[in-house]
Amino acid sequence: DTAVSQTPKYLVTQMGNDKSIKCEQNLGHDTMYWYKQDSKKFLKIMFSYNNKELIINETVPNRFSPKSPDKAHLNLHINSLELGDSAVYFCASSQGHAGGYGYTFGSGTRLTVV
Amino acid sequence: DAKTTQPNSMESNEEEPVHLPCNHSTISGTDYIHWYRQLPSQGPEYVIHGLTSNVNNRMASLAIAEDRKSSTLILHRATLRDAAVYYCILRVRAQKLVFGQGTRLTINP
């Protein structure tokens, strides 16, 4: 069974559209994250939820809205997509948010905005 | 964000040990040292982490300097599947991993 699964794996859409990426983890972790990896391959955190509560919200346009219906799910909704949103988006989870816990990442969603 | 410094790239041969260095001179007492790797077209993968003592697991070993200002990830016997970008990260009390540029490891057959 996949520990952290993201859907879809690939997403091609036109500018101005609204799209969602879903993430689910079956590890029983209580903290989930969204990271963005741009064309230069830098990984940057976007959001973090702990027990459904938003705990990290980096400088991200408010067109991006995360939603966590329960501890096992963290979805990312993007409104009015722009060309610059093209990137690979990774979901991750960890048990606890202290320094001694590792992250488990999903395999990524490659978003292409045309 | 706490900063780490790694070489941009390293090269090694298959079946030989690989030592990947990382400097983190501004580390504080509660910062954990984490290592992740990212294989081509995959998500980052947890490798190992430690606080003060050296650590071993099935993937690698982590050697931490006594003053904690540097660490070394050791792959005991590299295979072609170990070719990846390796990230050394300080995880501070805040709930996030901050990735740098990492070290691109090339393994020669």
What would your notes on this structure say?
The complex is a heterodimer of chains A (114) and B (109). In chain A, a hairpin with a 2-residue loop joins β5 and β6. Chain A is mainly beta. Chain A is globular, with a radius of gyration of 13 Å. Chain A has no helices and 11 strands. In chain A, strands 2, 4, 5, 6, 9, 10 and 11 form a 7-stranded mixed sheet that branches. Chain B has 109 residues and is mainly β. Chain B is built from no helices and 9 strands. In chain B, the strands form 2 sheets. Chain B has a 5-stranded mixed sheet, with no helix packed on it. Chain B has a 4-stranded antiparallel sheet with strand order 2-7-6-5, with no helix packed on it. In chain B, a hairpin with a 6-residue loop joins β3 and β4. Chain B is globular and about 40 Å long. The model of chain B has no long low-confidence stretch (mean pLDDT 92). At the A-B interface, β4, β5 and β10 of A face β3, β4 and β8 of B.
Please report the total strand number of chain A as a whole number.
11
Instruction: Supply Rg of chain B.
Output: 13 Å
Unreliable parts of chain B: none
Helix and strand composition category of chain B: mainly beta
Tell me how many strands of chain B there are. 9
Structural class of chain A: mainly beta
**Amount of beta strand of chain B:** over 45%
Order of helices and strands of chain A: EEEEEEEEEEE
Properties at a glance:
heterodimer; A: 114 residues; mainly beta; four-stranded antiparallel beta sheet; B: 109 residues; five-stranded mixed beta sheet; 46% strand; globular
